[in-house]
């Protein structure tokens, strides 16, 4: 009898939460909505310590929070969601923790490939972003398969930054831009003798690397700049994440640890964005 009442209570609470979230989202959609939200998943290790969980278990709890945020974003029509899952600097952690994170990543990716998941349910396309050659081969292969498996999903895009840092991204973009420009110069020099219209002035102009050249080679070229960057645990540092892309986005730092982030934190971030939207738009026009 008690089990029946307990089950009924859970269903009622779940149903109430569902309708409350729908109601909140309808209100929020009246105002301007972000096109791209980025997350720094801060506090997983502290969460595990506070809960007396085994080391690494906080990352597993953090994965469930990612799924919740993904659902909220999808229901609101946010087209791009980016998460900072694993920094290049994280390779400096203990070999045991790094291996645990690689194993967890592989487990979750393989779970996605084996069965229908929230990604296909919500039509989410997955992109793994970063210097993927630094990943273990099984993880890299699984990531490539996941990207192929969700390539036809068109509702929204989840960009998972792994083996990523902004300094590495900018260095990669600069090197690729230089190489691309050098290839163009070589091609122009080859055809110059055959085309009198290619003047010295045009050659010099074409030798210049422009902003668009750099941006074309960044890892994050697949998405527009974020509108909101959310970092949990109250930290306000960017920690080498999206330094190139975050010039004009709203920074939001709730004190909650990432595994505990919930609907109220998410909604408050959106309300802050809508309140500051006119100022953010003005800044974009000035730039």
From TrEMBL:
UniProt keyword terms in alphabetical order: Transferase
NCBIfam families: uppS (TIGR00055)
Pfam families registered for this protein in UniProt: Prenyltransf
The name this protein goes by in its record: Alkyl transferase
UniProt similarity note: Belongs to the UPP synthase family.
Gene3D superfamilies, A to Z: Decaprenyl diphosphate synthase-like
PANTHER family (alphabetical): ALKYL TRANSFERASE (PTHR10291:SF32), DEHYDRODOLICHYL DIPHOSPHATE SYNTHASE FAMILY MEMBER (PTHR10291)
Organism: Datura stramonium
EC number, UniProt record: 2.5.1.-
SUPFAM superfamilies: Undecaprenyl diphosphate synthase
Matching InterPro entries: UPP_synth-like, UPP_synth-like_CS, UPP_synth-like_sf
């Amino acid at each position: 009898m008690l089990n029946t009442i307990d089950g009924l209570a859970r269903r009622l609470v779940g149903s109430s939460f569902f309708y409350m979230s729908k109601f909140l989202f309808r209100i929020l959609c009246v105002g301007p909505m972000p096109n791209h939200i980025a997350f720094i998943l801060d506090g997983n290790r502290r969460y595990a310590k506070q809960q007396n969980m085994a080391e690494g278990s906080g990352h597993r709890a953090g994965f469930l929070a990612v799924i919740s945020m993904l659902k909220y974003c999808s229901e609101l029509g946010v087209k791009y969601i980016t998460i900072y899952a694993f920094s290049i600097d994280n390779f400096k952690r203990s070999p045991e923790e790094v291996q645990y994170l690689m194993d967890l990543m592989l487990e979750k990716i393989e779970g996605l490939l084996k069965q229908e998941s929230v990604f296909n349910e919500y039509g989410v396309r997955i992109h793994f972003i970063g210097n993927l050659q630094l990943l273990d081969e099984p993880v890299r292969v699984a990531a490539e398969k996941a990207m192929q498996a969700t390539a036809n999903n068109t509702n929204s895009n989840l960009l998972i930054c792994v083996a990523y840092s902004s300094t590495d991204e900018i260095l990669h973009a600069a090197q690729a831009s230089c190489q691309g420009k050098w290839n163009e110069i070589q091609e122009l020099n080859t055809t110059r003798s055959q085309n009198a219209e290619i003047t010295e002035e045009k050659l010099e102009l074409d030798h210049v690397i422009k902003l668009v050249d750099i941006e074309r080679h960044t890892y994050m070229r697949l998405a527009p700049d974020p509108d909101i960057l959310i970092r949990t645990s109250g930290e306000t540092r960017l920690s080498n994440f999206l330094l190139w892309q975050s010039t004009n986005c709203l920074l939001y730092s709730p004190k909650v640890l990432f595994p505990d982030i919930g609907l109220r934190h998410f909604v408050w971030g959106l309300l802050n964005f809508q309140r500051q939207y006119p100022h953010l738009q003005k800044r974009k026009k000035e730039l």
